[in-house]
């Protein structure tokens, strides 16, 4: 079977809204490598959008899933629960940052986790408003879309959205938005559009994902924590893309030493098996009434088994340290590219193995080079790579290698990327 014929079959039965980045149909994958149905090999710098932090088909995770499937696959956590869900909740509440007593819930997708975090915050505060940030991404369900700070393609054609959702600028020095300006915008919001006493929650990605891999400055997260404490607002850290070792710590917000009230978790939590969670302070988590939270597939026993093994793999294979090593390797190699092409590469940035390359014209942050970004993504498979773009303007290449990838594979992939970008800049 060939990729193009499979693409034709897919296009004939899938709604166009659920497209795919590449006409590359996967036959198998192992750690940081993927093979398509034609036998072509690719180095995976996307990992299913930061899902397979522990690599594709990690043997320990595969074995844990097999053992669980042989026992049972589903009973519904809200009907007949099971021990591995309890154990996973115990471990997640233990590793969540901060000294407060924690509780957890399990759902299935990142967007569900976000929706439930807002429900919990509103139940606890008895307030209506939620504040998010320009460029943020929180999911594709109705509330999550409303929170997302970018129209195309996520919100286009899909309104109306829930009310009482507000956005303020996210601090990005490279784009002229300082911490002080962002905080001032937030305070102005409380004067102009909604009183702080009516705000249930502020939700923030400690590193913006779709927004361009911009880490929130430590002083900004500290200031948000202080503001939320002062005004009785629930601080929600959306760690869906940043969690489980991706940034060199288990959770990105640990870099700032801040304890959020609630955290959303998904993606890297279970090595590719669908599960998500909200973990937070006990008194806040217990605000909804019995039956107010849940979902038929939430906390799948198969995904719980995988997630428990992911936690063991992260610990046993020192993947937090490895994440920082990978980030340094990428930064060094991509930094050399920036020195060669200073008018094209505005910035190379990373937090652990969450790495970005921002492309512009004439070294100007106000002139995003979307065309080059799109060309690099489109032609990456010809150079044996799987890449993703992101950014408010769509001009950022994001690198999300497995934390289990070897130096040899990473160096091979970076050499391929060097050839790719050099070819297109000279064309």
Automatic annotation (TrEMBL):
It is an enzyme of class 2 (transferase). It comes from the Bacteria. GO terms for molecular function: 4-aminobutyrate:2-oxoglutarate transaminase activity; identical protein binding; pyridoxal phosphate binding. It holds the Pfam family Aminotran_3. Its cofactor is pyridoxal 5'-phosphate. Keywords: Aminotransferase, Pyridoxal phosphate, Transferase. GO terms for biological process: gamma-aminobutyric acid metabolic process. Its EC number is 2.6.1.19. Belongs to the class-III pyridoxal-phosphate-dependent aminotransferase family. PANTHER family: AMINOTRANSFERASE CLASS III. This is 4-aminobutyrate--2-oxoglutarate transaminase. It comes from Vibrio astriarenae.
């Amino acid at each position: 079977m060939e990729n193009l014929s499979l693409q034709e079959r897919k296009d004939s039965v899938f709604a166009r809204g659920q497209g795919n980045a590449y006409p590359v149909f996967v036959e198998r994958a192992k750690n940081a490598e993927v093979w398509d149905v034609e036998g072509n090999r690719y180095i995976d710098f996307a990992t299913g959008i930061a899902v397979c932090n522990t690599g594709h088909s990690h043997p320990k995770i595969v074995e844990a899933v097999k053992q669980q499937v042989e026992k049972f696959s589903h009973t519904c956590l809200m009907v007949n629960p099971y021990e591995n869900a309890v154990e996973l909740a115990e471990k997640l509440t233990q590793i969540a940052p901060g000294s407060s007593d924690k509780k957890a819930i399990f759902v299935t997708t990142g967007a569900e986790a976000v929706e439930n975090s807002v429900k919990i915050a509103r139940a606890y505060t008895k307030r209506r408003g939620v504040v998010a940030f320009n460029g943020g991404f929180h999911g594709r369900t109705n509330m999550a879309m409303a929170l997302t700070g970018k129209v195309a393609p996520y919100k286009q054609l899909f309104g109306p959205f829930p009310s009482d959702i507000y956005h303020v600028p996210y601090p990005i020095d490279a784009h002229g938005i300082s911490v002080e300006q962002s905080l001032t915008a937030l305070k102005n919001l409380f004067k102009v559009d909604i009183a702080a006493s009516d705000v249930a929650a502020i939700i923030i990605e400690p590193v913006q994902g779709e927004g361009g891999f911009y880490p929130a400055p430590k002083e900004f997260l500290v200031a948000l924590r202080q503001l939320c404490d002062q005004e009785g607002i629930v601080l929600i850290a959306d760690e869906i893309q940043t969690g489980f070792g991706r940034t060199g710590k288990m959770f990105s917000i640990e870099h700032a030493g801040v304890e959020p009230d609630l955290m959303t978790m998904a993606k890297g939590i279970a090595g590719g098996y669908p599960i998500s969670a909200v973990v937070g302070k006990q008194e806040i988590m217990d605000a909804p009434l019995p039956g107010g939270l849940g979902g038929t597939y939430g906390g799948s026993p198969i995904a719980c088994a995988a997630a428990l093994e992911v936690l063991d793999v992260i610990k046993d294979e020192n993947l937090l340290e490895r994440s920082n090593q990978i980030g340094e390797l990428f930064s060094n190699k991509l930094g050399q590219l920036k020195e060669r092409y200073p008018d094209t590469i505005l910035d190379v940035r990373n937090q652990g193995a969450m790495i970005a390359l921002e492309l512009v014209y004439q070294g100007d942050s106000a002139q995003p080079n979307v065309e080059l970004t799109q060309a690099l993504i489109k032609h990456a498979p010809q150079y044996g790579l799987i890449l993703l773009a992101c950014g408010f303007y769509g001009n950022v290449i994001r690198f999300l290698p497995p934390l289990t990838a070897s130096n040899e594979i990473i160096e091979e992939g970076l050499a391929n990327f060097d050839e790719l970008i050099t070819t297109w800049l000279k064309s």
